Amino acid sequence: MYKVFDPRQLLHAPDVELHNGRLIPHVDRPARAQVIAERLGPFGPAEDFGREPILAVHTPEYVDFLEGAWRLWRDSGRSGDAIGYTWPVVKRRPLQLDRIDAQLGRFSYDAGTPIAEGTWAAAYWGAQTAVTAIQPLLSGSVRTAFALCRPPGHHAGPDYLGGYCYLNNAAIAARAATLAGRSRVAVLDVDYHHGNGTQDIFYEAKDVFFASIHGDPATEYPFYWGHHDERGAGEGEGFTLNLPLPRETTLAPYLNALDLALEAIAGFDAQLLVVSFGADTYEADPISHFRIATSDYPRIARQIAQLRLPTLIVMEGGYAVEALSENVGSFLSGF
Q1: What is the widest separation between alpha-carbon atoms in the chain?
Q2: Percent of the chain with pLDDT over 70
Q3: Beta carbons within 8 Å of 290's beta carbon, 6+ residues apart
Q4: Alpha helices in 239-281 (DSSP H)
């Protein structure tokens, strides 16, 4: 399996996040990627494809904001990381507002995703990692690749960050594939949380099918997206499939949902598959509530591999750091 990682992704090290009414140490620690890189290596380096593949998914205004936000925050006399505190929940307009506080509200949707000094560099190289990893799939030299991306990406939309995500690595890779001539690409999101950013990016697209199996947003983050009746719009109507599952879901019902997702992807006649893999479905994950065991991951992966598609696996969540490399290795072994 072709594997890519760039150590500059470890530069993202925010101090705190707002959780349950108080500030706590940020859950997305550099150790998440470091332990996987050390135990599952060797990894190849990321190449620099520049901003072009990023701008195929994210707006220029958002990318400029993300690159400059920490500096603007510090220039305004603030200490610590840049975190928003006010959001335009209605009549969200592209106003030209120079104050960093207003920009944070415009380009984000939660208070759990601060911008630290190294956030832009880490997110940029996470995107490059995904684009690098998909290249041999496009050339046909490999069938499966793993992009060890951090911070994760699937909550990041065209012009917003949230859910620990800044640039949408899976979406950037999927769009790179369509621009390289793959007329139908599928994204399968198997993170515990719904990939609302990926859904938003492709909601009206007819060339990318998005399927997600996740904790029911009636009770689970991100709450406002990922419900069963969200099916796409315009030319993309019918090309979004959400399969929300209740807390305490175990392997058998999970595999039933996976069968439905894979059947839909096969019916779409996808030419390439991007898997947003989150190990936060693990039974001991500190912020999630499925009951998937380490020994279950090869079974899940083998079922996905039965599609027999060129497949890029992009790392998303997973916060039980002590078990993370074993869970990721277990999943990859199924391919």
Answers
A1: 55
A2: 100
A3: 192, 215, 245, 247, 248, 249, 250, 254, 281, 282, 283
A4: 251-268
- Of all helices (H) and strands (E), which one includes residue 210? strand 208-215
pTM: predicted TM-score of the whole model, two decimal places: 0.97
CA separation for the pair 93, 96 (Å, rounded): 9
pLDDT in tens, 300-311: 999 999 999 999
Q: Give dist(CA 165, CA 155) in Å, integer.
A: 6
Closest listed residue to residue 59, CA positions, set 158, 181, 182: 158
SS3 of residue 67 by DSSP: helix
CB-based contact 132:5 (threshold 8 Å)? no
Q: Where are the chain's structural domains?
A: 2-12+27-44+119-333
**pLDDT tens digit sequence for 128-185:** 999 999 999 999 999 999 999 999 999 999 999 999 999 999 999 999 999 999 999 9
CA 183 to chain centroid, in Å, comes to: 22
Question: Distance between CA 78 and CA 64 in Å, rounded?
Answer: 20
Q: Is 58 a catalytic residue?
A: no
Across the chain, mean pLDDT equals: 97
Q: Which residues pair with 144 in a beta bridge?
A: 311
Q: In CATH, which of 3.30.1490.190, 3.40.800.20, 3.20.20.370, 3.40.50.1820 is domain 2-12+27-44+119-333?
A: 3.40.800.20
Considering the candidates 12, 26, 154, 155, report the single residue annotated as catalytic. Answer: 155
What digits encode the pLDDT tens for the residues 50-108? 999 999 999 999 999 999 999 999 999 999 999 999 998 887 788 888 999 999 999 99
User: Rounded to an integer, what distance in angstroms lies between the CA atom of residue 312 and that of residue 16?
Assistant: 31
